[in-house]
Amino acid sequence: MANIKVLLVGATGETGSAIVQGLLASKDPKYDISALVRPGSMDKPAATSLKESGVKTIPGDVTGSQDDLVKALSGNDVVISSMFPFTLDLDFVLADACKLAGVKRFVPCWWGPVLPRGRNILGDKKWAILDHIKKIGLPYTKIDVGWWQQLTIPKLLSGRTDYMLLAFAPSNTLLGDGNVPSALTNKEDIGHYVARIIGDPRTLNQQVLAYTEVLTPNEQMKISERISGEKIEPKYTSAESIAETIESAEKDVAENPHDIPKIIRLVGAQYQNSWGLQGDNTPENAKKLGYLLTSELYPDYQGIRFETLMKDVVEGKAKKIYEGRF
């Protein structure tokens, strides 16, 4: 059987790099992997690293001419978008080019928790892109990956987890009462799930939730205490506080619609409300919204569980996400 030809847009980003590694490791199916790289970045270290790993780099720019973009995409079975979330409008451009290039499956830029329409301004833009994809008749697969385990690492008094903590993911701050379940995925597993999904005819023109386990924040805290041997004192943020943040951020964004930090503040609070309070990010809710689940599609695949990640973190062996990016 011929290898499946895949082209990635955003291959050097945090999610894109995880997808690349999963595709490279796949044995069945096998993939011929290309990455679209801006012409001015072809000789930069990130592009050089892609080439050294076995990925073919193709010069091209989604913001350039449509004819050049169609030429760059032509001949690929699958095109995957993992661009910067705040440039999502480019997925409209990419979808149109995929249609003209005869791409057999387009994977738009989602890569987050389950979001019903109306919960999140970023999510609603993604839904608009999917509506466009369907309108032009482009074959697609939409993939959500739940909440990353790496974004839920608690801070320990000993400081052993400090190297994994990120400023935009406050540690030890739980939403509501901390008992709302959420689908979790280790970032390192994303590419392995994608390798299964995009080679599976059952997932064509479907939306898929890729996830490994479902835990509440309180359960994660208990696991972390057991593994670390340290007591953790969580802080709880009320639903009222999150609602106030959303209201304030909505006003700021209305007054400054192109201010990325203000948009991030709003999107972050809306995410917290969705997965942390409303319970949107669960397999049960995903199925109600028409998703397929990787737990049912690929029951043989055992992803990295939060407990395993915490053991590695405490031992200083875990790989930090967004290394050198924030």
UniProtKB/TrEMBL annotation:
Keywords: NADP, Oxidoreductase. GO terms for molecular function: oxidoreductase activity. Signal peptide: none annotated. InterPro entries: NAD(P)-bd_dom_sf (IPR036291), NmrA-like (IPR008030), NmrA/Isoflavone_reductase-like (IPR051609). It holds the Pfam family NmrA. The keyword Cytoplasm does not apply. Residues 5-249 form the NmrA-like domain. The keyword Oxidoreductase applies. This is NAD(P)-binding protein. It comes from Patellaria atrata CBS 101060.
